[in-house]
Structure formats: structure tokens, C-alpha cells
Design brief:
Helix content: 25-40%
Structural class: alpha+beta
Radius of gyration: 23 Å
């Protein structure tokens, strides 16, 4: 079998690239769904795997402006990766990833970023687990805050077609300081965030939007669904929070007080929360949050030197990291890293690891100490891990509030 992978040259080929993953969704790809993807994924940023005249695999790479500790970096948001079950275990996925990462390098996108549908897949292509994601399921009767309720703010319900102008500045201010988030274009807001077709609702309540103002300034917002239900005549509905952001602790405090107090809801459910979400310390009964943690985003350094140069480092001197990278061999070698210094070096390595481990510490989601204890990194001397953690000091838990 001869498989050819090439970039999509038309919207029809973009449709073909999406069809393999849609096969696993169990439904046909509608014109509306294709149009939604096409607003944020131009055909050349997707690729198809061809077996003769048949498209049997596809993948896409969204153009992202990703926040990293102390800066931003151009990144490829890897998405819609799929191979038809008729062509499994024939090297098609490997060929797609080879094409995609080479294209990232050609486009000067030094980082690839994704959510994994199956977490065992991407490690062999150099991706490392970069963040964790939390979910809650809080009963209404246990939603009291620890201490006084604080400022309530002024809450306003906003129609979705008028929401972008209010929400996007809040989102941008939060995204500017949180590693793992990325800026949203107007097309992104309209195609992926503020539209609510039935294929997204899947029988759940309509998407609602609330904006919280503090001192007459929009400071927080939430997108949520009210899912009503009666149990023996009593209200037993659930509030599903799709996205909730506040630009300050007071704004976040006021936003969640609004959400937790919505009437006729027996529980509040939210996923894709950052691991260090303040709710853990805000509520009086944190155990009742039923906090659940799973893997979040995965990250791959396509160009180690450029990617590391895009972020800042702590004042702990320098450390030499020996990088092993079988899939992108141009990254392999020893790299001296520290404040104002990212360079190849012939000096012996203080640490030695696979490039996937570097992806795990890049945003600050994990420490070198954690990797060392998991036998994911070797250290040449006992002080190397401590020094590396001082240099790669995290700025808080990385967070991506949406699956792309």
C-alpha cells in the first residue's frame, strides 16, 4: 500500500480531511459543521492521507497565539486527527504526524498543542502531558462560601449575538497571564464559542451568557446551560457551565456566587477548570465539589531553541538539558537554558530527557522534580533537579478552557 499525505487544496478536500474523524462521531458531517470549521481552519492548514483516489485519514493545525510563562509563541493547534478503521495499523497516523510537524517547522510554529482523544497515542511523536484539567459536580445545598459572600457585582444576561464585544476583552486580559490559553479571533468567537446549533446542544439547554460588572466595568462572564428536570414534582435540574472567567479574584468570586445561586438547579457542573481554581478555597465544603482530575493539554516542542526562547526563566543560573528526539532529530543535543540564555552547547548535560518530558515542563504544568520521581529524566548530580526547577519556575497551573 502506498499512502500519500499532502495539504488540502480546496474546501472539498478539507471536507475529506474531516470525514475520517467524523466516522468515529457516528454521524454525517453537515454543511453547517464544515462551514464552522472552515472559518478557523483554512484548507492548507489541514492535510489528507490518500490511498489512491480515496481519502483515508486527515488532520488539521489551527493557528494559535499561545500564552507561555512570560510571553507568547506561535503554535499549531492539532485537531481532527483521524484514520478510517479500514486503514488502521498501516503507518497512516505516523505519516500524518510527519507531514504536520514538518509543516509546523516550515511555518515557523515552534510548538504543537493538542487535546488527546486517546492519551496513549501522542507520546511516541514527542508530545508531553502539559496540563491537568479539573471537573466539579457540586450539590446546591453545599454551595455556601467560606466566610462572607463578598461583592455580588451587577449581573446582566446578554444575547449571544451581542456578546463578543463584552466577552473578548475580558478573555484577552485573562489569556494574557495564563499559560496554556490563546487569543481568539472574531471568527473563533463566532464559529466556535457563541454559536449554539442543535448538533452542539445535543438535547441540552440553550447556551446562556451572563456578564458581571464591578465598578461599572465588565469584569467576568460565564457561558452556561440550564438543564431542567423534575423529580417527584421537585426541581432537580443541573447547571452546566461551559466557560467562566473573571479578570480578578473579586470578579471570579462574584461570578461563581451568581452561578451557584441560580434557582431550580439541584447541582452545578463544570469541566475544563484549571487545577488551581480558587473554588477549592472559596467554598465552605470543598469535599462536596467532587473534584475530578484528568489529563488536559499535550504539548510538543517542534523547534526547541525557538520555543524555549519565547518564554522567561527564573534567576537560578543555567542548566544544560540533553534532549533526545527521534521523531524531530533537529532538536536532539544539549541545550543551555537560563535567564536570557537558550543555546546549543557542547558541555555535558545536567539533565537528560526525551523531548516529551520537556513538553511537560514547558508551560509549568509539571516540575523537573516530578519527572525525576517518575523516572522520566536523568540527572547527572543531585543539585541539577533543584536548579532546573528554580529556572523553569511555574507561574500557576496552565489552563486551556476549551477543547479544540
Amino acid at each position: 500500500m502506498s499512502i500519500e499525505v499532502r495539504a488540502c487544496a480546496s474546501r472539498d478536500e478539507l471536507r475529506g480531511a474531516l470525514l475520517p474523524i467524523w466516522h468515529y462521531f457516528g454521524s454525517a458531517l453537515s454543511d453547517e459543521q464544515l462551514a464552522s470549521f472552515a472559518r478557523v481552519l483554512a484548507p492548507p492548514r489541514a492535510c489528507c492521507a490518500w490511498d489512491g483516489s480515496q481519502i483515508i485519514g486527515g488532520a488539521g493545525a489551527l493557528a494559535l497565539d499561545l500564552t507561555v510563562p512570560g510571553g507568547r509563541v506561535r503554535a499549531a493547534g492539532v485537531t481532527v486527527v483521524g484514520v478510517l478503521p479500514t486503514h488502521r495499523r498501516r503507518g497512516v497516523l505516523r505519516a500524518l504526524m510527519r507531514h504536520q510537524l514538518d509543516a509546523c517547522r516550515e511555518r515557523d510554529e515552534p510548538v504543537a498543542y493538542l487535546w488527546a482523544s486517546e492519551e496513549a497515542i501522542y507520546g511516541r511523536f514527542g508530545f508531553g502531558l502539559a496540563s491537568l484539567s479539573a471537573a466539579i459536580d457540586l450539590p446546591r445545598e453545599h454551595a455556601a462560601y467560606h466566610g462572607p459572600p463578598g461583592l455580588a457585582g451587577n449581573a446582566s444576561l446578554v444575547p449571544l449575538d451581542a456578546a463578543e464585544a463584552l466577552l473578548s476583552p475580558i478573555f484577552a486580559r485573562v489569556a494574557d497571564t495564563v499559560p496554556g490559553m490563546f487569543l481568539r479571533s472574531s471568527d473563533w468567537w463566532q464559529a466556535r464559542v457563541l454559536t449554539d446549533p442543535e448538533w452542539r446542544r445535543q438535547g441540552r439547554g440553550n447556551l446562556q451568557c451572563v456578564v458581571i460588572a464591578l465598578d461599572h466595568r465588565p469584569s467576568a462572564y460565564a457561558l452556561y446551560r440550564v438543564n431542567p428536570r423534575l423529580a417527584e414534582g421537585a426541581a432537580a435540574g443541573s447547571l452546566e457551565i461551559v466557560e467562566a472567567l473573571g479578570e480578578s479574584p473579586k470578579a471570579t468570586h462574584a461570578l461563581w456566587r451568581y452561578l451557584l445561586d441560580i434557582d431550580l438547579m439541584s447541582r452545578t457542573q463544570a469541566a475544563l477548570l484549571p487545577l488551581d481554581h480558587p473554588l477549592l478555597l472559596m467554598v465552605a465544603e470543598p469535599r462536596r465539589l467532587r473534584l475530578n482530575i484528568r489529563d488536559g493539554t499535550w504539548l510538543r516542542l517542534v523547534d526547541v531553541g525557538t520555543a524555549l526562547s519565547a518564554r522567561t526563566f527564573g534567576s537560578g543560573g543555567t542548566v544544560v538539558v540533553g534532549v533526545v528526539d527521534a521523531f524531530c532529530p533537529w532538536n536532539a543535543g544539549n541545550w543551555r537554558v537560563g535567564t536570557g540564555v537558550v543555546e546549543r552547547t557542547g558541555d555535558p548535560a545536567d539533565l537528560r530527557c526525551d523531548v516529551s518530558a520537556l513538553g511537560s515542563v514547558y508551560l509549568g504544568g509539571f516540575t523537573w522534580g516530578q519527572l525525576f520521581r517518575a523516572l522520566r529524566v536523568e540527572a547527572s548530580h543531585p543539585d541539577a533537579i533543584r536548579r532546573a526547577d528554580a529556572i523553569f519556575q511555574p507561574l500557576g497551573a496552565p489552563w486551556c478552557p476549551e477543547i479544540f
